[in-house]
Every structure is written in C-alpha cells, then in structure tokens.
Write a structure and sequence with these properties.
Elements: H1 6-43, E1 44-48, E2 63-67, E3 81-86, E4 89-100, E5 105-109, E6 112-115, E7 135-139, E8 144-148, E9 166-167, E10 171-180, E11 184-185
Antiparallel strand pairs: 1-2, 2-10, 3-4, 3-10, 4-8, 5-6, 5-7, 8-9, 10-11
C-alpha cells in the first residue's frame, strides 16, 4: 500500500472543499435567478419609459414597477397609471393613465376631457402644459379603457390610435412606483 504524502492529502482536501463551495454557490445563483424570473413573471412588471408622454409624472428614461396582480380582484380606476401591451403590437409595453372607463363616453373639447357629456371637464391637474384639440366622442366598450399620457401635447394615446381602446386582457399591471432617476410612489 502506497501512503499518500501529507501535501497530496492537503491538496485533495482543498480541491474537495472548493468543489463543494462552488456547488453551493451555483445552487444559490440558480435559486436567485429563478426567484427573479418568477418575481418578474408573476408579481411585477418592469418598464423603462422611452418618451416624454407621461411627463412630469414619469420622466423620459425613468424606470417603473407595476403590480401584475393589481386587477385580479378589482377593476382599473380612473387616473390609475397602467402598463399594457400596445393595441396591435405585443412587443411594445406602453405606460399611460386611465381616463375613460367601460361604458363611458369620452369627449375632448379644446384639450379638456369630458366624461358622459358632463357640464364640467375632468379635474386632471397632473397634465403637463397647455392642451388643445378636439377628439371624440369615444364610447368605451365593455372590458376596455381609454388612456391618455400626462404630457398630452407629446403623447401617442387613445386619441390618435386606430384602435383607441386598451382591452383589459392587454393590461400587464398598475404602476406603483418609479425607482430610477429618483424614487416616487404613485398615489391613487
């Protein structure tokens, strides 16, 4: 029987410990990646805002988190900020504010939004800058929403799309906070 030298035993022991440590770290990395994927697919939606359409609420290049399950037991409400798939193109996530609810008629006169022929315009003091233009009336179908950007002078939204409504099935989640270029919670 050949006896291993103490140095060879020490080297083998170190290799065994390093191999075990590498396996443990690999398991941790796999679990973290799996947790992140599940978090992103089941709980949250992450979006980067590419345009100025939601300024001054959300600035260009801000990053926003939305809760995927926000509308599991409730419906979107007026003024909620939602992330949704652009009507007609699933590859484009959009971020806009809910203005018109199912069954409502939305009319824009001189840039002011009127719901169901109300005498007074909607109180939307979050809108950036002066707004002009006439659009509508738009009768919002069941399970659909009429959405506008807060920067109405620089927003592609329900006023101008060929299909002006966002169906509920296309909504990915309700924006709850922005976390890059400043942190802010959205209050509804």
């Amino acid at each position: 029987m050949i006896k291993e030298k103490p140095q060879q035993q020490k080297t083998e022991s170190i290799k065994s410990v390093l191999k075990e440590e590498a396996q443990n770290w690999s398991k941790i990395v796999v679990l973290v990646v799996l947790a992140m994927v599940l978090f992103n697919q089941l709980l949250m939606v992450n979006a980067t805002i590419p345009t100025a359409s939601m300024e001054n609420t959300i600035m260009t290049n801000d990053r926003v988190m939305a809760l995927r399950q926000a509308y599991r037991f409730s419906d979107p409400a007026r003024f909620d900020i939602i992330i949704f798939r652009y009507p007609g193109d699933d590859s484009l996530p959009f971020v806009k504010r809910v203005i018109g609810l199912p069954g409502e008629t939305v009319t824009i006169r001189d840039g002011l939004v009127f719901i169901n022929d109300a005498q007074f315009p909607l109180r939307d003091n979050f809108v950036k800058g002066p707004v002009s233009g006439n659009h509508g009336p738009f009768l919002v179908p069941e399970d659909s929403y009429f959405v506008l950007g807060d920067n109405r002078g620089n927003s592609s939204d329900s006023r101008t799309w060929a299909d002006p409504f966002v169906h509920r099935s296309r909504i990915l989640g309700r924006a709850i906070f922005k976390y890059y270029r400043g942190f802010a919670l959205f209050h509804y």
